[in-house]
Structures are given as structure tokens and as C-alpha cells.
Amino acid sequence: MDLGKDLVAASATPLVLAILGEGDSYGYAIIKRVTELSGGRLQWTDGMLYPLLHRLERQGLVTAKWSASESGRRRKYYRVTREGRAQLAAQRQQWQVVANTLRSIWMKACTA
Amino acid sequence: MTIPTEHSPIEEQIAQWRAYLRRRRAIHGPDVEELEGHLRDQLMALTEAGLAGDEAFLVAVKRMGSLDALSREFAREHSERLWKQLVTTPEAAEESEKTIRTEALVVLCLAVAAALAIKVPALFGLQLGGGDGPFYARNASLFVLPQLMVYFAWKRGMDVVGGLWLALPFGAGAVLANVFPFLPGSHAEVLTAMHLPIALWLAVGFAYVGGRWFAGGGRMHFVRFSGELVIYYVLIALGGGVLTGFTVMMFRAIEMDARWLAEGWLIPCGAMGAVIVGSWLVEAKQSVIENMAPVLTKLFTPLFTVMLLAFLATMAWTGSPINVEREVLIGFDLLLVLVVGLVLYAASARDPERPPDFFDGLQLLLVVSALVVDAVALAAIASRISEFGFTPNRVAALGENLILLVNLAGSAWLYARFLRDRSSFAALERWQIAYLPVYSVWAAFVVVVFPPAFGYR
Q: What pLDDT, on a 0 to 100 scale, did the predictor assign at position B1?
């Protein structure tokens, strides 16, 4: 099953913020975590994550920092800010409204 | 599994991919590094899963997405990186051959209009060199800034209604500068002459961003433009000075006095026209001077920091208090303006995503030492004001000092947070550009309220 492009795009921001909420992380690890969480059903084009991260940084929702990785290369780590957490909480509520609405109409369809 | 060495085929492929990425103008150095790191992580995972080197490379590159789509996405997020491309791409150069000529013509007409505008009052008997100096001082900005506003409104394709709205501040400025019955030698009059250009500069800024003040990076571009205009203007003024000097000298050699030409026409008309021509040059040659402004900031930030620290150290060592002369308050205002200018300029020339470096620490040191110096000066001045009371000059200087102080305190706080990785550089940039209207609003306040409030003295 392929998810629609718009749906993937819309869910990207809360997903990234939520993953960073678990702890600081970097691009590749975020992608890996998304695949893991969705059981491979949510596929991103890897490169597209970076413009998104840069946008979140510009909006002040995450901060970034270059540090050395275990392989010795420089790696850019991202951390969610307080504003980012507030934004995540707000998005979470919005998604819940959508999910609940859809569920209630689908439940009705099942029981009818 | 073999560990890839410098010359293994996989390294060559990565180098090639990196070179392709570099060619995209929307993707900058650190971004390339970040993407390459991702590619390498992916490669390592895939080879560990059992894929051969080149298979792994194909899969990893495929997952990264097409470079076109990627650079489009980067371009959308980092639109500020593309303005250079907009003025220098070959297609643009071809189709705009005609527009460039039209623009040169428009600029020429506006520059001539500005140059002539300053001679118009002479037709009504107001002489520049004579006793009407204050009239010219009050109105100086009104001879040229409207033309500059028209240039940008034309260039950004603003509609007529928007242009007319922007004409409003200029009309109001013209009325206010000329209806107030200033007394001879009035301080409030000098303040009006100094503050009206600052107030009207905001209107020019509105035209510069095409009326969309809050959209994208327009305001930061305007800051950049303002600073570059100053550099160009100084260069043009230097050239103009040399020209004037030679004119007078050569005509004197044939026993003619050309000073009336220099003082009555060359200098005033040139000073006005140069604003328009300088603005046009900044617009047309963005990439030439772009490299100069950061260099100047980098050069003078350490020098000013050292100067301020030396001043503080000397004062602490000798214990001599600041001698509060008449001009001291203005002097410290100018110092703060300069420091704000350096900070603003450094911010406008900086890639917001670069990690903090030594230079950012230096900026913080500069800001903090300026704050300390100013606090010392303010304390000295406050005692003088409480002793001798308020005058328009003191209130204006004090107000400006306060405005700049707040700006610098905010900058210092945000710089410190940025250096300790608590916030991004973008926060500092936002603070600076959000502050821009404050200067003009205060300047407008001085122009409107001070003359009547202090009895036109």
C-alpha cells in the first residue's frame, strides 16, 4: 500500500518533531526510525527530509549542531526546542480530531 | 567486507555525486556535507546487509531522490540563496537586454529629477549658500527620497494605489518640515533635519520590498541594500570630491573662478543624483559588493572591540569619570549606532545555518562592551540632566540611546543563547528585522512632536 503524497507530506512535520522528542538525532537516524515505526509502510525520499529540517530550524522549532559522529565525520544533530514541543502538542490534537472523526464515521459504516 | 579506501571505486562514485550536488546553486556547502553523511550511513547499512559496493551505491542514491527534485525543494526553503542566480542566469541576461536599457533610462531621468529638485527652491529666491541653509537642511531628504521611492515602486511593479499610499509619508513630511514656525537657531529644527530622513527611509523600504514588508527575506535584503548604498555613496562622493577639486583648480589656472559652479551645482546636484545612481548600482551589481560588506564588518568588529575594551580598561585603571560635555551624549549614540550597524551587517551577510564560530563570540564581546561603555556614559548624563533639566537635544539623544540599548541588550541575549546552542541564529535575525520600524517610528515622533512640545526652540 502506497500512502498518498499529500498525506506523507502533511504527517512529516509532527513525525519529525515527535522523533526528536525522543532524543536528539540526525537525518539518517530519523529516516530509519520512521521506517521502523511504520513497519516500512511509510517511505520518504531521503533527501527531502533535509529541506524540512532546515525549515523547522528557521521557524525555531528545532536547533541544529554539528558534532563528530562515531565514524569521525562531522554530523548535524537536531534537537527539538520548547516551541517545537508546543507545536507538536498542537499538531497532535489536530491529528486526533481528524483521526477521531474518520473513525467515528467508519465505525458507523461498520455497524450500519 | 572491505573498508573503502580513498581510491576505491565507491569513493570515486561518491565524489562524483558530490560534484553534481555542488553544482546546484540552491544547495550550499554544509548541506552537501550533511547529505553526503546521510549517503554514507545508508551505504554502510546496505553493505552490512550484504549488498555489493556499487549495488549499495545505486540503492542509496535512488533513495536520496532525484537531484532536480531535491534542489527544487532546497530552493523553496532557501529562496534567499537564489537571488544572485536571478540576476545572473544567462537566459535572464538575454531577455532582459531591453529592460536593462529601460532601467538605465528610468534611473537617469530620476537622478536628473533629484538633481534639479534641489535647484527648484532657488527659483523662488531661497539661496542654498545664503541664509536659507536651514530650509535646505530640513528638506534635504525630500529632494531625493521620493524619486528613490518611485524607482523601487517602478522596479518592483507596484500598483498605483500602493504607490500613492507611499507618497503619503513624503507629503506629511514636507508639510511638517515647513509649517512649523521654528525660531532662528532652533535645536528642534536641527533635530527635524536629522530625523526626517530616518522616518522616510522606512517608506523607501516599503517600496524596496514591493509593499510586501513581512514576506520572506525582503526586510533583510533591505538592510543589506542600505549598507551597500552607504558604501557606494561614499565611493561616489570620494570621486565627486576629486572631480570638484580638479574643476576648481583647472579653471583657476586660466584665472576663472569656478567655485560658484562647484558650490551651486556640482556638489548639491551630485549629492542628490548620487543617491539614485548608487541605489541603481547596488541593485545591478549585487554580487560585486556583496563580498565587500562582510569583509568590512570582519575587519572592523575586532578593531572596535579592542578600542572599547581598551577604553574600559583605562577608565577602570585611572578611575577618571566621563567628562560630560555637550556632545558626549550624541557621541555615545553614534557609537551605539555603529555597533548596531556592525551587528546588523554581520547578521545580514551570515548564513543563518552555519554553526557558531569565533567571530560570533567576538560579536558578543563587542555588543557587551558597547553596553557597558554606554551604561557608564548614561549614568554620567543622567546626573547632568537632573541638574540642568530637559532640552530637545537631550531628550532626543536619550530616547535614541534607550532604543539602541534595548536592541543591543536583546542582541547580546540572543547571541549568548546562540553561542550556547540554546537557540538558532535565525532568532537573532528575526529580532533585528522586527526592530527596524522602531527607528523610523521614533524619528517620526521626533519630527512631529518635538517642535511644538519644545516651543520651536
A: 41
**Which of A48, A69, A73 minimises the CB distance to B73?**
A48
Q: Is the separation of the CB atoms in B258 and B246 below 8 Å?
A: no
Using the beta-carbon criterion (under 8 Å), do B77 and A51 form an inter-chain contact? yes
Question: Nearest-CA residue of chain A relative to B39?
Answer: A28
CA A106-A112-A4 angle, 5° bins: 20
Place of cell 556632545: B327
Task: Flag whether residue B31 sits within 8 Å of chain A, measured between CB atoms.
Answer: yes
Task: Measure the CA–CA gap between B180 and B169, rounded to whole angstroms.
Answer: 17
Q: Which of A31, A35, A50 to mutate to test the interface with B (most CBs of B within 10 A)?
A: A50
Q: Report DSSP state, residue B6.
A: T
Question: With contact defined as beta carbons under 8 Å apart, do A77 and A25 qualify?
Answer: yes
| Local structure of residue A75 (DSSP, 8 states) | E
In B, minimum Cα distance to A55 occurs at B77
Contact A60 B426 (CB under 8 A): yes
The side-by-side arrangement of strands in the sheet containing A25-26 is A25-26, A74-80, A62-68
Per DSSP, the residues of A80-96 read E-HHHHHHHHHHHHHHH
Please give the full DSSP string across B76-134, using - where no structure is assigned. Answer: HHTGGGGHHHHHH-HHHHHHTHHHHHHHHHHHHHHHHHHHHHTTHHHHTT--TTTTTHH
Q: Tell me the three cell numbers of residue B218.
A: 525582503
pLDDT for res B442: 93
Contact with chain A for residue B40, Cβ under 8 A: yes
Residue-wise pLDDT for A50-96, tens only, equals 889 988 988 889 988 888 777 778 888 999 999 899 999 999 999 99
Q: At what angle do helices B160-179 and B187-208 cross, to 10 degrees?
A: 180
B200-218 burial, b at 16+ Cβ within 10 Å, e below that, comes to bbbbbbbbbbbbebeeebb
Q: Which of B57, B38, B37, B35 is nearest to B46 (CA)?
A: B57
- The 3-state DSSP class for residue B393 equals helix
Q: DSSP string covering B46-83, please?
A: HHHTT--HHHHHHHHHHHH--HHHHHHHHHHHTGGGGH
| Distance (Å, whole) CA B144 – CA B201 | 11
Cβ-based contacts of B38 with chain A (< 8 Å): 27-28, 31, 46-47, 50
Q: How many CB atoms lie within 10 A of CB B144?
A: 24
Determine the pLDDT at residue A14.
92
Percent of chain B, pLDDT > 70? 89
Q: What is the DSSP string of B254-313?
A: TT---HHHIIIIIHHHHHHHHHHHHHHHHHHTHHHHHTHHHHHHHHHHHHHHHHHHHHHH
Closest by Cα among B321, B320, B364 to B342: B364
How many contacts does A have with B, using Cβ atoms within 8 A? 82
